[in-house]
Amino acid sequence: MQLSIKAMGEEAKFLSFLLAKNPQNLYDRNEKEAQVRMTYTTFEDNEVEAVLFVTPDPVELVKNSPATYDITQYINDREFVVSSLFVSYIRSALGTALNGKPKEAYLKWVDHPFNLTIGFGPVASDLPDAVIISLFEALGFKTEIEREKIEYAFDLKARSSARFITIQGKATLQNTLRQIFILIPVLDNYKHYYIDEKEIEKLQRFGEGWLENHPQKELIIKRSLRFRELIEQVYPVNIDRKQAQLDLDHPDEPQAVVRLNELRYQKIIDLVMSLDTRETIVDYGAGEGKLSVRLGSIPGVKEILAVEPTAKEQLRAIERFQKAGRNEDFVTPAPLWGSLFYYDNRMKGKDVFILCEVIEHIEEYRLAAAMDTIFGHYQPKVIIITTPNSEYNEVYQMEETIRHKDHRFEWTTAQFQDWCALWQSKYQYSVEHIGIGEEVQGYGQPTQLAIFRRQVVNQNE
Fold first, then answer.
1. In the chain, how long is the greatest CA-to-CA distance?
2. Alpha carbon of 385 to those of 123, 264, 267, 357, 433: distances in Å?
3. What residue spans define the domains of the chain?
4. What is the DSSP string of 371-429?
5. Is-same-fold flag (2-193; 256-454)?
6. Spatial separation of the C-alpha atoms in residues 280 and 346, rounded to whole Å
């Protein structure tokens, strides 16, 4: 792992005084389980570059681990990637620059903006390139991301997921290092230590003057603090308590994907709660029942049909419903086998009909028949449909053209809205479109949602 700091211009030489390291000497220290070295690769009147190298001892990394019996401790990527471990290793070496306390003769250079180029890596991040770039460009840095070209000896993937990041801009050394010390763990979404209230203090101290107005503030805070109780102390946000526990139980799982699922469910729950009539609900394509079990806790709901054509998924849903049924005032969803291509009178005339990430699993040429059944025969008061936004796939840097091998198609925003307009006019429903997930300019949001409200009620019902 490495971090390079370069300054250009007439004042570049003063970088060494802020770093408090003699250009003629090699900085070489043992920090915890790693060796930290710092050297100047360039030291000229108009250009100075210092590089920090960190070499962890993989055995020492796991000696004091409570999970030493777990062999995966020895085959993870912690000893190779820039993460919270790396930040902790180099903190002592950069302590003077981070605190802004060089010798008195050089104090005026603490607030001096240098022409800086900072490079670090490798970074193992679950964030797409576009989001990483947006984190640094909001701070005024031009950002470049490089991937190593790797030829695998077997069919694994076309390119490495590890990235090297370079940022360029005019800024003070202290502010830049403080920003990096917060953002590196955000990129990797990994903290090697217990996260408590002290993390809030560090976030506030290093985030002073820039985090408050950062457009990705919510993302930074969530990935820095992770747990609901801590997050709400500095930034009140609506996070599902089950997701907070999931983060606690599985801290190394990629949170971007999980978070999108939770945002999708939460948006649907919010919409259902806002409806005047929500007594009867059909959750079609209920899968393992993750959405259905949330619907069961909504006040005013009296019946939930959790419809799923796959027996294996339905068994998991039944187990989930039984556990949740121990809670008072919970409406236990009724598991129901069903297909959109066979009429089932039990689904007719409900208040809400939900298709969460379902339509893309149906062949396009068969979709019209399924929608005729829902809009024309079941005639629910409200229909909620979510589906991926294919334009956002470019943000994910995907090698495939669709997000899941079982998807039969994925639509752009325009395609989905045109499709919705067809069913809106054919069966006299109004329609409203909503985006879900992190928005990226030019690509929209990863999930698109349409909520149909029935305008004409059959008087014979």
1. 91
2. 36, 11, 11, 7, 10
3. 2-193, 256-454
4. HIIIIIII--SEEEEEEEBGGGGGTTT-SSSSSSTT-S--B-HHHHHHHHHHHHHHHTE
5. no
6. 11
When the candidates are 1.10.260.30, 3.40.980.10, 3.30.420.40, 3.30.1610.20, the CATH number that belongs to 2-193 is 3.30.1610.20
Alpha carbon distance 163, 47 (integer Å): 26
List the one residue out of 128, 361, 360, 137 whose CA is nearest residue 260: 128
Determine how many CB atoms are found less than 10 A away from the CB of residue 295.
24
Sheet with 142-147: strands ordered across:
27-31, 34-44, 47-56, 2-8, 114-124, 162-171, 142-147
E strand or H helix at 185: helix 173-188
- Tokens coding 92: 């002592």
Q: At what angle do helices 217-225 and 255-274 cross, to 10 degrees?
A: 110
Unique residue bearing structure tokens 């060089």: 102
Please state, in angstroms and rounded to a whole number, the distance separating the CA atoms of residues 54 and 79: 9
Report yes or no: 127 and 163 within 8 Å, Cβ to Cβ: no
pLDDT by residue for the chain (461 residues), tens only, comes to: 889 999 999 899 999 999 998 888 888 888 767 788 999 999 998 999 999 988 876 655 555 544 444 444 444 445 567 778 888 888 888 999 989 899 999 999 999 999 999 999 888 887 888 889 999 999 999 999 987 665 545 444 445 567 899 999 999 999 999 999 999 888 886 665 556 567 777 888 888 899 888 988 888 888 887 654 444 555 443 333 333 333 333 333 334 334 678 889 999 999 999 999 999 999 999 999 999 999 999 999 999 999 998 888 888 899 889 888 777 789 999 999 888 888 999 999 999 999 999 999 999 999 999 999 999 999 999 999 999 999 988 877 666 678 887 889 999 999 999 999 999 999 989 999 999 988 888 889 999 999 999 986 554 54
How far apart CA 377 and CA 345 sit, in angstroms, is 9
> Tokens standing for 27?
């900085």
Kind and range of the H or E run holding 163: strand 162-171
Inter-axis angle of helices 197-206 and 217-225, nearest 10: 140
Contact 307, 301 (CB under 8 A): no
Task: Assign domain 256-454 one CATH number from 3.40.50.150, 1.10.357.10, 3.20.20.70, 3.40.630.30.
Answer: 3.40.50.150
pTM of the model: 0.51
